[in-house]
Amino acid sequence: SMDDSDESSKKAAEQQTEDHQNHHDYGGFASLPTDVLISILCRSPASDHTSLRDTCKAFRTTIDSAAYKGERATSGWAEVSTYLLSGSELYDRENPNGPEDVSLSDGDVDGDATEEERANKLRWKIAEKRVEEIIDYGYSELGCMDEDYGYHDITMDIEVDGKRCGSMHLVLLPRGVYHNYPFHEAADAHSSELQMVGVRLCDSVGRLKVRSIKNAELISGEAGKGGFLHIKTVRINEAYQPMDCTNIVSEAVRSALSEPKLDGKWTLVTAISDYQVYMTKKEMEFKCKIRYGEGGNAEEKERADKRFWECALLDTLTLLRIGFKQIPETVSQKQNPYWLFALPCFLKDPIKSFEEVNQIPLIEPPDLPPEPIGVDSEMLESMKKYCINMRQILDTLKRTKLELDKTEQNSSGRLAEMERRFAEARISIDRGKPDHLSDESWGE
Q1: Are 201 and 173 spatial neighbours (Cβ–Cβ below 8 Å)?
Q2: Alpha-carbon span 261 to 258, nearest angstrom
Q3: Cα distance between residue 253 and residue 347, in whole Å
Q4: What are the counts of helices (DSSP H) followed by strands (DSSP E) for the chain?
Q5: Nearest CA to 174 among 196, 199, 200, 153?
Q6: pLDDT of residue 13 exceeding 70
Q7: Is 7 helix (H, G, I), strand (E, B) or coil?
Q8: SS3 for 438?
Q9: How buried is residue 164: exposed, middle or buried, by Cβ count under 10 Å (0-12/13-18/19+)?
Q10: pTM of the entire predicted model
């Protein structure tokens, strides 16, 4: 038939076009070695990737490969951005099927309503329920807001060359400018990590306790009020971290902190180096097996432990690249994660190269003397027990004093009240018997 003939002609034309693309116009490029082709194509802007993929099979395979992604990352040609998910977008991602248990009741539509009318009404009810749940569950413009303390859990997508390849999670505590925000309570309510950071760096209302951060302020007290931002996690596709390349994560964190919706909402950002940013999935699985005693000899355990600290150091260098500084006061003992901070003014300088920050000496804890042995060890343990007992006694005395002070205050208050009543009674007696009282009542 004519239709079959047209269809056959169309397919033949498409095949001819594909053959022409594969073997004629781009044959020279497609026949190049893979590494050479990657070096050529990786310099193209991300906006051209779709067209290049449609050009021929060789280009499509190259652009989709992990080697191409790795070359884009290491060469600096990758285009990195972040996207802050609003509360409604978070809700839709967490509830892809929309609100549950939404149906039409008898009073929602007339008995003679058409199927289309019923479907429209149901869609309207679902949309109404969605809005209610977004409000009830605390979703906000910045993500999700806690109803008790007002902090925001922020989620950002990391995009490389226009494709989502990772995510970042932050928390923003609104300390305000009047030092009346219950900072420690809010940090404790959020997570153990934030509670540890909050207590170590700030007082109960969020004012800074750490000298190194205070010395970095352009204006005294600037970092002790306003939003306190903490980076919780950064996770990214392994393909964009070849040979522990820190380019993509550095640009992603800088992009996230420069998000227009966060402009003016934070005055201090903190982070603790996280080994999971650079550990591969395979390395993480092996480390978990070792942790739970499911395998690994002594040499493998030592190698895994070494890799653990290598990854923590890589994350530290990543943050140093974008302007973070180490917090010396948090250096306590060997093999502890590094704590870092940044102020908004730190992010104005260009991102440093890996070679530059690798020359920055990190503050390490001093080498401690060897553990005591023999009699020295016994004396140390005795002193520890004595100090613990003395601390308990002092705490008990402190609590007792507080209770006595409270009792004395209450007693003084009651005594003052009794004296006031006696004075009022004495005044009444001195004035004589009121006309409305009987002689018997007045005698009483």
Answers
A1: no
A2: 9
A3: 11
A4: 17, 9
A5: 153
A6: no
A7: helix
A8: coil
A9: exposed
A10: 0.75
